[in-house]
């Protein structure tokens, strides 16, 4: 009787995920899902830490992070049948906290309303397939520059948060003090995680976080938590806040925020998905099959996350860890969603994951994102200048939107000067004026 039920279950899984067609097994897919989860589980603790800096309730953000990851990963599994996990992205939460809330002085409640509006627009343009049109219009080099710039920005945030660099009146920034014990905790985490990454150990970032936390607990730099397992934190502090503050979107600055969220989300997920599809061997004639369904999964989870109280979701590059050991179907993503569901009972661990623990994560992820720079065509100045302005503009202005604006404004100018105006997509000319307006709105109009 049990064997009969087992065969029926396997038959159902086969019909749903086409394991034989992809030459994989249930065991391999489950192992791939566990590997992917361990590789990206850090977001459960880093996202509340980053958004908590903006004034949001960390417990509620923890729950919203897990739920949006469950929603996105399960939808990816069932709609697109890809081994790609989805969760709130580091670039978006960094932009939300450091560029919008802290730099622009916009309350997190209002900023979250901006995330909701961009999520709705995002869903609409995904349904209408406008998303692919805009993605294709933006030159490959600028996409790489945006990814690289966000990487440098995230690393800068990590270096600052970990105490490795501090403000300086004479040089703007300088090296932090090594007499501060917390700084050594960051250094330990960075070295250990770096060694694990160099050794290509699956889940290196998560393991590095655990080891750094253990050192902090042993040295009493981090207080012991009262418990490890608890009930799931309430979503009440953040749930529906975006809807309640939709009226605040009348501010011109908020429309600039909506635009940047759209653009960052555009590049983040699409670029990552294509890269993962290349790794897994899914690409056919330079196109990713079922990309519309995959983008829909991301769009719906982004909208759901905005309602619950977290920044936009994205396809996680850490999915490559699961793909590397054989994950080829949506069953891998489904397992990731299940693991995020189990993790919701471990919220007390938020208390031990301090800024010094998460700082190495930000630096390491920044390094990974910055690798995109090697593919930029630096030999052509008309490409190099806008790419460079995009990359350095983000960390030096401490604002992702400024970096994107600098590059997108410079690109049509340098291409025209080089006599290559026919190669510039008309959409880029539109974005040229959009970003000029954005800089005017952010810096000139009264807040």
From TrEMBL:
InterPro entries to which the protein is assigned, alphabetical: Azg-like, Azg-like_bact_archaea, NCS2
Gene Ontology terms for molecular function: purine nucleobase transmembrane transporter activity
Topological type in the membrane: Multi-pass membrane protein
GO CC terms of this entry: plasma membrane
Compartment(s) where it occurs, according to its Swiss-Prot or TrEMBL record: Cell membrane
Transmembrane segments: 30-47, 59-86, 106-130, 142-166, 178-198, 205-222, 254-274, 294-317, 388-414, 426-445
A Pfam short name: Xan_ur_permease
Superkingdom of origin: Bacteria
Record keywords: Cell membrane, Membrane, Transmembrane, Transmembrane helix, Transport
Family according to the record: Belongs to the nucleobase:cation symporter-2 (NCS2) (TC 2.A.40) family. Azg-like subfamily.
Name this polypeptide is given: Adenine adenosine cation symporter
Lineage, highest ranks first: Bacteria, Bacillati, Bacillota, Bacilli, Lactobacillales
């Amino acid at each position: 009787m049990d064997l009969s039920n087992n065969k029926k279950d396997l038959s159902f899984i086969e019909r749903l995920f086409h394991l034989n067609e992809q030459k994989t097994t249930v065991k391999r897919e489950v192992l791939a899902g566990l590997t992917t989860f361990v590789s990206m589980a850090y977001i459960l603790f880093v996202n509340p830490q980053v958004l908590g800096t903006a004034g949001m309730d960390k417990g509620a953000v923890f729950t919203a992070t897990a739920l949006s990851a469950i929603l996105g990963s399960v939808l990816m599994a069932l709609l697109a049948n890809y081994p790609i996990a989805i969760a709130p992205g580091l670039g978006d939460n960094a932009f939300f906290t450091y560029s919008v809330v802290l730099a622009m002085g916009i309350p997190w409640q209002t900023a979250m309303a901006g995330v909701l509006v961009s999520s709705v627009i995002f869903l609409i343009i995904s349904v209408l397939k406008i998303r692919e049109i805009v993605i294709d219009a933006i030159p490959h080099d600028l996409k790489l520059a945006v990814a690289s710039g966000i990487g440098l920005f995230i690393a800068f945030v990590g270096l600052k948060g970990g105490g490795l660099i501090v403000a300086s009146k004479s040089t703007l920034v300088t090296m932090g003090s090594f007499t501060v014990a917390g700084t050594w905790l960051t250094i330990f985490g960075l070295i250990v995680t770096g060694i694990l990454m160099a050794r290509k150990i699956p889940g290196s970032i998560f393991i590095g976080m655990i080891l750094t936390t253990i050192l902090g607990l042993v040295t009493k730099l981090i207080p012991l938590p009262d418990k490890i397992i608890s009930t799931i934190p309430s979503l009440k502090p953040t749930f529906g806040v975006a809807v309640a503050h939709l009226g605040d979107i009348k501010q011109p600055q908020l429309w600039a925020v909506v635009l940047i969220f759209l653009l960052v989300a555009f590049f983040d997920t699409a670029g990552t998905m294509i890269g993962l599809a290349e790794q897994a061997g899914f690409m056919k004639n330079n196109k990713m099959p079922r990309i519309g369904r995959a983008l829909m999964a991301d769009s719906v989870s982004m909208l759901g996350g905005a309602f619950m109280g977290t920044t936009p979701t994205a396809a996680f590059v850490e999915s490559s860890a699961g793909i590397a050991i054989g994950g080829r179907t949506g069953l891998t993503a489904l397992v990731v969603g299940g693991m995020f569901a189990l993790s919701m009972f471990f919220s007390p661990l938020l208390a031990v994951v301090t800024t010094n623990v998460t700082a190495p994560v930000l630096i390491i992820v920044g390094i990974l994102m910055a690798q995109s720079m090697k593919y930029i065509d630096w030999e052509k100045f008309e490409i190099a200048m806008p790419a460079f302005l995009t990359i350095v503009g983000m960390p030096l202005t401490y604002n992702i939107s400024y970096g994107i604006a600098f590059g997108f404004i410079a690109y049509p100018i340098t291409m025209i000067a080089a006599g290559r105006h026919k190669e510039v997509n008309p959409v880029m000319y539109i974005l040229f004026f959009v970003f000029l307006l954005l800089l005017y709105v952010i810096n000139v109009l009264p807040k």
